[in-house]
Amino acid sequence: MVRNPFFKKNRQKNKLRKQERDDFSNELFTEIDANLLNIKKLLDEPSDLIIREFKIGNTDHRCAVVYLAGLTDKMLINTHIIKNIQNALEESENESYRAIDLINQLHNKVLSVGKVEIAISLDKVSNALLSGDTVLIVNGIDHVITIESKEWKDRAIEEPTSEALIRGPRDGFVENIQTNIVLIRRRIRDSNLRIKSYQIGRRSKKDIVVAYIDGIVNPQIVKVVNQRLRSIDLDDAQESGFIEEWIEDNFLSPFPQLSHTERPDKVSADLMQGKVAILLDGTPFVLIAPFTFGNSLQSPEDHYERWIVASLLRILRYIGAFIAVFLPSLYIALVSFHPGLIPSKLAFSIAASREGVPFPAYMEAFLMELTMELLREAGIRLPKPIGQTIGIVGGLVIGEAAVAAGIVSPIMVIIVAVTAVSSFSMPSYSTAFTLRILRFGFMGTAALFGLYGIILGYIMVNIHLVNLKSFGVPYSTPFAPGFSQDWKDLIFRAPITALSKRPEYLQTEDTERIGMTKGRETP
Amino acid sequence: MTKTKLYLIVFIVFPLFVTGCWDQIEIEDRGFIIGVAIDLFEGTEEGSDDPQGEYQYKGTWQYVVPGEFSQGTSGQSGGGSQKPYDNVSTISDSLLIQARNLSANKSRPAFSEHMQVIIISDKLAKTPEAFENVLDLFIRDDEMRRGVIVMISEGEASPILDMPARPENLPALNLKSIAENIGKNPKIHPPVRVGTVHEYLIGQNSFTIPKVAIDGKAISMTGAAVFQGNNNQMIDFISGDVTEGLNFITGKYKGGFIKAKVKDQLVVYDVKNARSIINVDVKNKENIHFNIEIQTEGIVGESFVPLDYSNSKMITKVENAIEKEVERKVLKTIHTFQKDLKVDSLGLGGHLQGEDYKTWNRIKENWDQGEHYFSESTINVQVKAFVRNSGAVIESSDQ
After folding, report:
1. Domain boundaries of chain A, sorted by first residue
2. Could you write out the DSSP letters of every residue in A156-173?
3. Which residue stretches of chain A have pLDDT < 50?
4. Residue A520 DSSP symbol
5. Between 20 and 30 A from B99 (CA), which of A41, A121, A491, B169?
6. Could you read off the pLDDT of B169-224 as tens digits, one per residue?
7. Pick from B89, B135, B259: nearest CA to B187
8. How far apart are CA A211 and CA A271, in angstroms?
């Protein structure tokens, strides 16, 4: 069946290779040379594998330090491992050291490094090597010592580009999970902050960390998160998106059921509310579960600005979301089906502006929305200096030219522009995506049935929304099921002093946010 | 997903597309009708075997020409070489057939959800049964809105839809805007919607409908047409002054002015608010008493005599002069309706009905017809005027 010889040959070869790997023993031997040989064989003698053999102190016991250059801290290996071992046990003239005593001596007295562990299988050894640890093999004993010596080049902590704020901390997560944990820990000095780590990826073996605050979080949510994380069986998760898609409740839904953020302040705020954060090594995007529709229109800034400003901005965002979803479809419905609903003079000027446009309103709208989406996509792909230019060229020139050429009406250009601006005002990128998908859906129903179609679509979306759950929490809370307390921080943002309770919809263990003894002291 | 599920979705979703943009007509393909003027047409349709109605009507339907309209409003073309509207006249005994006939003349199908005014000529309104027959389409049709304003024209109706209308540019819109100026000029009758006319036609009470006339080269909307309630036939026009009094009585007075003489000099009272309270006294069944109490609130708009308005006595003096003036106007209106027209368009019958239903039932047949109890009844008028402030002038030389 397969004509290409590449596939045929490879198939046979792959079979052989697999056989070979299965035969490979996972044991460690007492002989140092056998161990070294096995390690070399396992990793296929890479050029960055460093094996340094020497003798411990002035004894005759052979030992070897093995590590991968680049992943490790050379200074640490040289001064705290190799130098210490070479100088160790010098004063002792007693030569009746047994290998097991040696290991204990090294462990207790010689190695001046924090994290030192004993490994008893080759798997562990390769895992340690690949994650940047140093392996110390001593002759005559069938287990080895792994010494933590990770160090690699990291991006510095920078301001998150995808979630810029006017007011608020400027630090953002980086690709290193240790740094990310530190960023969270620095914000929450609570002994109950739990950081539980797993390894994920059948091959890549990435660290993944679940963080939550014990005593606040609803244990049910933690249980579900852990359960789902344990079920992950991927070869590799390059980004937290893999995790998100694996553990979300409904993969068919256009609505995101986990939020992702680059902002440590947002994560700490959510942990304090009783949510669970999932950190993955190698990506600055941290997942937060559960996520509800109300959350998607909230920005961290809502709590940094004063409550009046924040409330107004929230309302503005709700209006923006409505416009981003419904404006083009309303235009189609009103212009093609119900011109009687437009104020008379506006109806006449829309009719005048559409005079000579060859397409029906829905074609016009689809064309312009498509152009807009293309421009947006192109703007992301293009190199930064050109990106802005393309935005201007696309937005202004194409719009203007399309109107001049009589392909679309000027009103359509306004509508597309307002819609685009509204969808950019969404604080969460994934929500903006959802709204874009819904927008096209509504445009379709409007083109078929007018306002009737929009209402039908709206009902369908609502049915889906109330059915959807995120880690057991209904997606549409606190709208439905309603929690009147949570409305304080939903469409409006009540003053901080009034937000005395944690969100009721999360059913947290500790419900009080504000101590009841002392109120705000007014002068 | 199972195959059954997939088929189910296909069979549910695909029929939606079969409907294919049901009812879709693009906005630029619609012929917006914004006004219609209906005249009585002398003569009969010839060469038709169809059943004929009693009268032939000439309907003048005003279409918007959107392109010209928007140029006119943006002012780019400097007035526009062509009119932003297009009047099409057709003659038929049925209004619906007229509307359908339009499709033979115009490329764009008529769309009347944006209709603003219906103008009916006085001649037609005075013809028995014609008025209600003509309005039937506008009440019955589902595309017609209840908010369309009805007007009665003095003389032929169709030229009114061709009067120059700056800056609105559309005569029909212009008429509607003028009708809404009632807050500034009390001689204008408040606009009457088709829905209200429907009520009038069903009820027995007499009613009034605003009048529109061509006054030289401009449109004048002062005055109203008075209709007899039982046969829905127009009786006569009333003047702007009588309309003002009518507005006072019906409580629809929105604002205006009263000229009064104080110390032989003119003081113009700017009415901001007015209301009327009507009480009925039915002790004497033969002579029913109505007490109309009118309260006005306003400010001194113009004062040609320097008066000291900080003095409350002076204010009272001015108020008294105003009250007399209002009373005179209202009494004149009452006289016109009671003695000249002998119709109760003041709504007094309704108040009687509310006060004493039995008496009303007994006499309603003879209220403003037959025995004319309305004309026999006594109507008292009390006016209370309040001057709320004297404008920005305080100092004055004369006391």
Report:
1. 21-147, 177-291, 304-474
2. PP---STT--SSS-----
3. none
4. P
5. B169
6. 889 999 999 988 888 888 999 999 999 999 999 988 889 999 999 988 888 999 99
7. B259
8. 8
Q: Give me the phi and psi of A504, to 5 degrees please.
A: -70, -30
pLDDT digits (tens, 9 = 90+) for B7-65: 988 888 888 777 777 778 888 889 999 999 999 988 776 667 778 888 899 999 999 98
**Alpha helices, DSSP H only, in A409-514?**
410-424, 429-449, 451-467
Task: For an interface test with B, give the residue of A334, A345, A346, A348 to mutate (most B CBs within 10 A).
Answer: A348
Return residue ranges of chain B for CATH 3.30.300.210.
Answer: 241-399
Residue of A339, A344, A349 lying closest to B30 (CB–CB)? A339
| ipTM for this prediction | 0.85
Task: Give B117: exposed, middle or buried? Use CB within 10 Å, 0-12, 13-18, 19+.
Answer: buried
Query: Could you say which of B16, B24, B69 has the minimum Cβ distance to residue A352?
Result: B69
Q: Does A449 touch chain B (CB under 8 A)?
A: yes
CA B383 and chain centroid, separation: 26
User: Are A277 and A271 in contact, with CB atoms under 8 Å apart?
Assistant: yes
Joined together, the tokens standing for residue A193 give: 């902050």
Q: Is there a contact between A448 and B26 if contact means CB atoms under 8 Å apart? A: no
Query: Least CA distance to A360: which residue of chain B?
Result: B26
| Topology adopted by domain B241-399 | GMP Synthetase; Chain A, domain 3 (3.30.300)
Q: What radius of gyration, in Å, describes the C-alpha atoms of chain B?
A: 27
SS3 for A237-248 is CCCHHHHHHHHC
Residue B398 clears pLDDT 60, i.e. is over it: no
* Nearest residue of B to residue A340, measured between CA atoms: B113
Question: In chain B, which residue's Cα lies nearest the Cα of A359?
Answer: B26
Lowest mean pLDDT among A392-401, B132-141, B149-158, B256-265: A392-401
pLDDT band of residue B76 (cuts 50, 70, 90) is very low
Token duo for residue B89:
């006249």
Q: From the centroid of its chain, how far is CA A385?
A: 27
Q: Is the peptide bond before B167 cis (omega within 30 degrees of 0)?
A: yes
Distance between B70 CA and the closest CA of chain A, angstroms: 5
